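Run log // design_07
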């Protein structure tokens, strides 16, 4: 229940309550001036901010970061609703703070911003509560990575691949941006597991993933579908351009698997390549063409890339 009868507390008591607030509370005017600061008693996260009082956002922060804060203040004032944002701050965002003095990593905050029903020195103003959520943000990032990453290869998993492919399909439908898809697997992978053991099978997958990271472009998106099957999404790339990349990848994977020296004569890959087409109602169409081309490579003797 919200208690509104602050008359129960004396002035010194109210001051003590405000000082004891663990998170800092800023009173910020429409012009971006720090009118008052309360709380911030949790010394794990906050330093004394009293020196900010009287300064403006542009006195304290670099221009682009100050402009962002000003925009959030204006939105809260115009809507007069509770405005909640998440933002990061690092040493380079603060004027006059050297990299040695600032935090080594970005610190993340949740800002809860509410318009005050009175003016401060003749200006509209907001109350901005800043809560440090760096640990929560890190945990969320780690969970997101785990949910999107295949643990053995370190590449994207099927779920993340399909989401990313759908996004590129939508872009293709709207702008016609070319996107190609390569599906490949390791030839005779079952034989590798049976003859050399599952640990060597896992090593073959790890080597293949490492080659993907080393040989593909920054914009290319490799993923492991499962087992020994991989997919490479190549945005802004036609089928002809993707064919050159796929062929280079095929040769390099074979070289690295042979160099491992634990798979007998080594192993090769077979792949199928296709490109998004105007008639593709969904991503299933391009995946099916690439998959059909993969099986054609198998039928034609393996160790090759076929186009579908």
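design_07 sequence
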């Amino acid at each position: 229940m919200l208690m509104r009868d602050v008359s129960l507390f004396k002035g010194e008591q109210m001051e003590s309550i405000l000082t004891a607030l663990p998170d800092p509370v800023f009173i910020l005017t429409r012009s971006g001036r720090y009118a008052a600061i309360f709380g911030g008693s949790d010394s794990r996260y906050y330093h004394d901010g009293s020196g900010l009082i009287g300064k403006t956002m542009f006195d304290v922060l670099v221009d682009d970061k100050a402009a962002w804060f000003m925009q959030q203040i204006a939105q809260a004032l115009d809507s007069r609703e509770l405005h909640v944002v998440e933002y990061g701050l690092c040493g380079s965002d603060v004027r006059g703070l050297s990299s040695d003095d600032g935090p080594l990593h970005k610190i993340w905050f949740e800002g809860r911003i509410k318009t005050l029903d009175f003016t401060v020195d003749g200006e509209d103003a907001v109350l901005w509560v800043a809560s440090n959520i760096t640990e929560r943000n890190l945990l969320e990032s780690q969970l997101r990575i785990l949910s999107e990453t295949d643990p053995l290869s370190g590449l994207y998993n099927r779920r993340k691949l399909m989401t990313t492919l759908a996004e590129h399909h939508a872009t293709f439908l709207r702008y016609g941006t070319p996107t190609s898809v390569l599906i490949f697997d390791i030839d005779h992978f079952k034989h590798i597991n049976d003859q050399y053991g599952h640990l060597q099978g896992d090593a073959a997958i790890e080597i293949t993933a490492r080659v993907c990271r080393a040989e593909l472009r920054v914009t290319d998106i490799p993923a492991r579908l499962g087992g020994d099957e991989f997919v490479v999404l190549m945005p802004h790339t036609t089928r002809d351009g993707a064919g050159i990349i796929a062929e280079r990848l095929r040769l390099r994977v074979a070289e690295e698997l042979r160099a491992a020296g634990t798979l007998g004569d080594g192993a090769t890959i077979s792949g199928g390549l296709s490109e998004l087409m105007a008639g593709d109602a969904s991503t299933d169409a391009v995946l099916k063409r690439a998959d059909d081309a993969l099986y054609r490579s198998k039928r034609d003797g393996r160790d090759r890339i076929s186009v579908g």
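The mean pLDDT is 89.
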